[in-house]
From TrEMBL:
NCBIfam families: PRK13303.1-2 (NF009827), PRK13303.1-3 (NF009828)
Binding residues for NAD(+): A124, N190
Key words of the record: NAD, NADP, Oxidoreductase, Pyridine nucleotide biosynthesis
Keyword NADP among UniProt keywords: yes
UniProt lineage: Bacteria, Pseudomonadati, Pseudomonadota, Gammaproteobacteria, Pseudomonadales
Catalyzed reactions per annotation: L-aspartate + NADP(+) + H2O = oxaloacetate + NH4(+) + NADPH + H(+); L-aspartate + NAD(+) + H2O = oxaloacetate + NH4(+) + NADH + H(+)
Protein name, entry field: L-aspartate dehydrogenase
One Pfam family named in its UniProt record: Asp_DH_C
HAMAP family in the record: NadX (MF_01265)
Primary role: Specifically catalyzes the NAD or NADP-dependent dehydrogenation of L-aspartate to iminoaspartate.
PANTHER family on file: ASPARTATE DEHYDROGENASE DOMAIN-CONTAINING PROTEIN (PTHR31873:SF6), L-ASPARTATE DEHYDROGENASE-RELATED (PTHR31873)
Organism: Pseudomonas lactis
Domain Aspartate dehydrogenase positions: 168-255
Record-linked InterPro entries: Asp/hSer_DH_NAD-bd, Asp_DH, Asp_DH_prok, L-Asp_DH, NAD(P)-bd_dom_sf
Length: 267
């Protein structure tokens, strides 16, 4: 059985715990919550048969097989870097955090010192295997378009680009590099950052973001061209009820990745 520590227990975390509850090969022993939110998280987990222990930091003597981050950018600094130094393998869902200058190098150095590994999860997007394989032969262009319901862009610079409450047509709220998208839209830039890391990098991946008042899906579309040929992928993700910014596929991506570590065959 694999012993897991989960960082963050919001929309993704609860979804993952629900799906793992009856898996005999995976056990989440600890959930690490942010300071002050422990009681709320315990309440969220009250209906579980064997709820994980809720703490604000991993105990010094804990030695999980895997640590999975489902929390947000700050948690990488707070929990993932120290865990890597301790030799704990980490799975990261907040891939957008890696667009911060120098963070990739710090994660690599911490994993090397701890003689362990970091796995960046595909989350809300697919085709990352094909894109990173295509990169081996050389890529010429990667263009990504993220289209979400207007309400998903609340509290982002999208509010300055248009009136999200009254737009009647799908409206482009951003066009530029993945680096700029990550800076301006940190909570919506995970897919752009993942495509950049697998493909052409933050400066050469072109991003378009759209607020769509008629959509209730998170639509991720990208096109890649290179020596391998060309492919495009369009993924119409259903948002989670608990957080409309997050696609349900992200939960399944975490469960798949954990299962691949525990089961005899990984796919
Ligand atoms: N790779 C991908 O495709 C996607 C990645 N994400 C990332 O996953 C993260 C979580 O998403 P949701 O569960 O929908 O968000 P959420 O807001 O529902 O839940 C996040 C939870 O993490 C907790 N948290 C925040 N900082 C923490 C810290 N430093 N230590 C411990 N707990 C902390 C919060 O209190 C909250 O309970 C997002 O911030 C986003 O960056 C989200 C969607 C797709
Ligand atoms: O669709 C999602 O779940 C999240 C998303 O767009 C992103 O962070 O890039």
């Amino acid at each position: 059985m694999l012993h897991i520590t989960m960082i963050g227990c919001g929309a993704i975390g609860v979804g993952v715990l629900e799906l793992l509850e009856n898996d005999p090969q995976l056990c989440v022993d600890y959930v690490i919550a942010s300071e002050g939110s422990e009681a709320l998280v315990r309440q969220r987990l009250a209906s579980f048969k064997q709820p994980p222990q809720v703490l604000t930091a991993l105990p010094a003597d804990a030695r999980p097989d895997l640590l999975v981050e489902c929390a947000g950018h700050r948690a990488i600094e707070e929990h993932v870097l120290p865990a890597l130094e301790r030799g704990i393998a980490c799975l990261i869902v907040s891939v957008g955090a890696l667009s911060e200058v120098g963070l990739v190098e710090r994660l690599e150095a911490a994993a090397e010192r701890g003689k362990t590994r970091i796995e960046l999860l595909p989350g809300a997007i697919g085709g990352i295997d094909a894109l990173s394989a295509a990169k081996v032969g050389g890529l010429d262009a990667v263009n990504y378009t993220g289209r979400k319901p207007a309400r998903a862009w609340k509290n982002t610079p999208g509010e300055q680009a248009c009136d999200l409450d009254t737009i009647e047509q799908a409206t482009v709220i951003f066009q530029g590099s993945a680096r700029e998208a990550a800076r301006l839209y940190p909570k919506n830039a995970n897919v752009a950052a993942t495509l950049s890391l697998a493909g052409l990098g933050l400066d050469r991946t072109h991003v378009t973001l759209i607020a769509d008042p008629h959509s209730d899906e998170n639509v991720h579309h990208f096109e890649a061209r290179g020596a391998f040929g060309r492919f495009e992928l369009s993924l119409r993700g259903k948002p989670l009820l608990a957080n409309p910014k997050t696609s349900a596929l992200t939960v399944y991506s975490v469960v798949r990745a954990l299962g691949n570590h525990a089961h005899a065959i990984s796919i």
